[in-house]
């Protein structure tokens, strides 16, 4: 249980740093980098959107949510953040608790 808590703490730290990186990229107007980052999340997003329509309707409360562009945009953003934070989180965990 302690290992899971430590891993989650490292992941939260990595998510915070990823959000700060996103803010820095927006501040320096590096939108091409952000577009590439979001493009890396497209395959998993398209795979998730293949889930049945009743799943998305139950999750969001909106009929036809799987075809709504706002859901796709939100999923791309969230998956891009999750992917970008995974590697630093594992690095933090290995650095602090791997010994």
How does this model look, in words?
This protein is an all-alpha fold and 99 residues long. The protein has one domain. 80% of the residues lie in helices and 0% in strands. The protein has helices at 2-27, 31-39, 42-48, 53-60, 69-97. The longest helix is centred in the C-terminal third of the chain and has 29 residues, at 69-97. It is flat.
Provide a compact summary of the structure.
The protein has 99 residues and is mainly alpha-helical.
Which terms summarize this structure?
flat; 5 helices; mainly alpha; about 100 residues; about 80% helix
Give me the secondary-structure topology.
Layout: H1 2-27, H2 31-39, H3 42-48, H4 53-60, H5 69-97
List unreliable stretches of 5+ residues. Answer: none
Mean pLDDT: 93
Radius of gyration: 16 Å
Q: Provide the β-strand percentage band.
A: under 5%
Structural category is mainly alpha
What would you call the shape? flat
Helix content: over 70%
Reported for the largest beta sheet, the result is:
none
Number of strands: 0
Q: Encode the helix/strand succession as letters.
A: HHHHH
Span between termini: 18 Å
Number of domains: 1
Count of DSSP-assigned helices: 5
